[in-house]
């Protein structure tokens, strides 16, 4: 009977916790945050245990009122059910290859065979900062389903070095077809199929980090122009420069995106400076050439990352 009462209280309180969070965010026209199941269970257990403890104390007081303090009868008080253990504690370090990683299902064709790359005058390596997320429209978790190189060829006229000079240009982009697994912020929903097109000379640099087909990542997305970028002073004469998608990834590809493991942990670079201040993390041992502009990479639990993302959305995106 006591077990059934406790389970009923647990189920009711879990539903109330989720509904409360959903209502708070829907009223603000925000996407409700991700709440790890363990956290809901823990909150519900604490609430249910407290409720039963209060009921138990009230019941005992009624018993003593009727039988008196000097009764010789023994009263059996069952122990409060054990609360679920705290968030998983990570080791100080772990090897990348020892993590539960998704398998790469295929590689991107022609990724290392691109020539005639256009270099823009303002191309530069800017250090990543979390404040850049404010330039985005969404933050999602997504699985890469397909990726390929797209070529654009067009004719232009420019007067920068020689009046009315014409020439043929080639531009290349990387197109990612992804499926949304979770939305931290934005108008997407789980199951949406989204096309991302990355237009940058950096995409074909040896420093670039490509999203691997079959893996899942946390992707901060923005919406840019719907046409290929032209050099300063150029005018299009002929050719189709309309892109396949306006959606791009903030600060990609020099910045390695946050990878999600099969057991739902998160691998992020130390240049996510606020996140890297979290205490419960494990340094991920990996080849230095994989680090890019981040000095180190760390592994985080689902709970730690969820707490962080709630802060990020509130600080950089909710005010929009």
Task: Provide tags for this entry.
single chain; 320 residues; alpha+beta; 2 domains; 11-stranded mixed β-sheet; 3 helices
Total number of distinct structural domains: 2
- How much β-strand is present in the residues? 25-35%
Shape: elongated
Largest sheet features: 11 strands, mixed
Mean pLDDT: 75
Share of residues in helices: 10-25%
Gap between N and C termini: 51 Å
Taking pLDDT < 50 over at least 5 consecutive residues as the criterion, the unreliable ranges are: 26-30, 51-84, 115-124
| Classification by helices and strands | alpha+beta
Count of distinct strands: 11
What oligomeric state best describes the polypeptide chains here? single chain
Number of helical segments? 3
User: Radius of gyration from the CA trace?
Assistant: 27 Å
User: What sequence of helices (H) and strands (E) makes up the elements?
Assistant: HHEEEEEEEEEEEH
């Amino acid at each position: 009977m006591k077990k059934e009462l406790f389970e009923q209280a647990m189920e009711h309180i879990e539903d109330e916790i989720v509904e409360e969070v959903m209502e708070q965010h829907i009223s603000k026209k925000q996407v409700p945050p991700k709440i790890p199941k363990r956290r809901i269970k823990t909150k519900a257990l604490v609430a249910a245990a407290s409720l039963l403890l209060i009921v138990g104390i009230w019941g005992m007081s009624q018993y003593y009122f009727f039988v008196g303090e000097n009764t010789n009868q023994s009263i059996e008080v069952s122990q409060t059910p054990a609360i679920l253990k705290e968030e998983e504690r990570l080791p100080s370090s772990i090897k990348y290859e020892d993590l539960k990683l998704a398998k790469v299902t295929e590689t991107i064709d022609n990724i290392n065979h691109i020539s005639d790359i256009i270099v823009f005058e303002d191309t530069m390596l800017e250090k990543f900062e979390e404040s850049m997320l404010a330039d985005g429209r969404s933050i999602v978790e997504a699985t890469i389903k397909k990726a390929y190189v797209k070529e654009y060829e067009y004719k232009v006229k420019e007067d920068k070095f020689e009046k009315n000079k014409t020439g043929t240009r080639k531009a290349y982009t990387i197109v990612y077809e992804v499926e949304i697994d979770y939305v931290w912020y934005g108008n997407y929903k789980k199951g949406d199929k989204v096309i991302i097109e990355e237009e940058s000379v950096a995409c074909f640099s040896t420093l670039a980090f490509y999203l691997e087909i079959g893996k899942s990542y946390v992707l901060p997305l923005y919406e840019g122009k719907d046409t290929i970028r032209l050099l300063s002073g150029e005018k299009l004469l002929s050719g189709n420069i309309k892109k396949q998608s306006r959606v791009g990834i903030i600060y990609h590809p020099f910045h390695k995106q946050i990878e999600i493991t099969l057991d739902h942990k998160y691998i992020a670079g130390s240049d996510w400076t606020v996140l890297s201040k979290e205490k419960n993390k494990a340094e991920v041992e990996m080849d230095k050439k994989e680090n890019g502009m981040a000095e180190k990479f760390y592994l985080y639990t689902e709970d730690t990352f969820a707490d962080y993302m709630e802060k990020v959305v509130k600080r950089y995106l909710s005010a929009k």
